[in-house]
C-alpha cells in the first residue's frame, strides 16, 4: 500500500508513463514452419486452423463503448481492507489448495476482494482501462467476480466502489453452477467465486479474443489464490469455467457474458 502514489500529481506522473504501453501479444507462429508441417503426421487436420482460431487481433478501439455495470439491486459498502499479516515468502509457502472450508467472515472477504479486484486508478484518456493489483488484457479487467454464498444468495463485487451488490439470479442456472462446483470439489460451507467476463467490453479492442479472456481470468484466479494464502484463507481453483450455466446466472446482464472460472473461498478450518 505504501508504494502507491497518494497525491493527484503523483497519479498524473504514473498515468503519463503508463500511456501507450498496452499491446497484445500474438501467439508465436514460428515454431513450426511450412516444411515442418507437411513432414508431420497430423491425423487431427490443419495446424494452421488451430493457430488462427486462437489468435486475438487488436483493433484500433476508435468505436469503443463504455464499460457497463452489473445490474445490482442493492449495494452494501464493504469494510476497509485490513493489512496483510504475512510476508510474500510466507504467502508463497502457505499457498495450498484447501481441503476444508468454513464460512468466510465479511471482513476477510472484503480484504480479499480489495486486493484482488479494487480499482486504484483509471486511465486519463480511456476510462475503460483501469489499474488494479492484478494484471489484465489491455488493462480492461473484463472479469467480474460474483459470489455464491452457502445460503443461496448471490452478489457481485463492485470494484470501483469496494462494495457488494445483490444480484437477481436465474435460480435453476445458479443451482447448476453450484452443483458443478460441488462435483469438482465438495464444500458445502464455502462461498463460490465465479468469474463472468464482459465480451462486449473486450470486443471494442480485440477480435477473436475468447482464448485471451480465459487467460485473463486465469491470471486473476492465480492472483486470488496468492492473496487468499497471504490472508490465511482457504481457496481452491476448480477445473471448469462454468460454461454454459454460469452465463445464465445473472438476470438482465447488459453485456454478452463469457463464463471464465470457478473457485471456492472460505476460512480455513482450524483443527485442535
Ligand atoms: C486450472 C486448475 C484447475 C483445477 N481444478 C480442480 C478441480 O476441478 N477440483 C479440485 O479439487 N482441484 C482443482 N484444482 C486444484 C489442483 O488440484 C491443485 O492445485 C493441485 O492438486 C496442486 O495442489 P496445490 O494447489 O495444493 O499445490 C485445479 C487447479 C487449477 C490451477
Please provide the count of β strands: 12
Helix content: 25-40%
Number of helices, where a helix is a run of at least 4 consecutive DSSP H or I residues? 8
Cα-based radius of gyration, to the nearest Å: 20 Å
Provide structural commentary.
With 272 residues, the chain is of the alpha+beta class. The protein has a single domain, classed as NADH Oxidase. The chain contains eight helices and twelve strands. The longest helix has 21 residues, at 210-230. The radius of gyration is 20 Å and the shape is globular. The relative contact order is 0.19. The model is unreliable at 1-52 (pLDDT under 50). The structure holds flavin mononucleotide. Flavin mononucleotide binds next to strand 11.
Which key features would you list for this structure?
272 residues, alpha+beta, NADH Oxidase, eight-stranded antiparallel beta sheet, two-stranded antiparallel ribbon, 12 strands, 31% helix, disordered N terminus, binds flavin mononucleotide
Give a short synopsis of this structure.
With 272 residues, the protein is of the alpha+beta class. It contains eight helices and twelve strands. It has one domain (72-268): NADH Oxidase (3-Layer(aba) Sandwich).
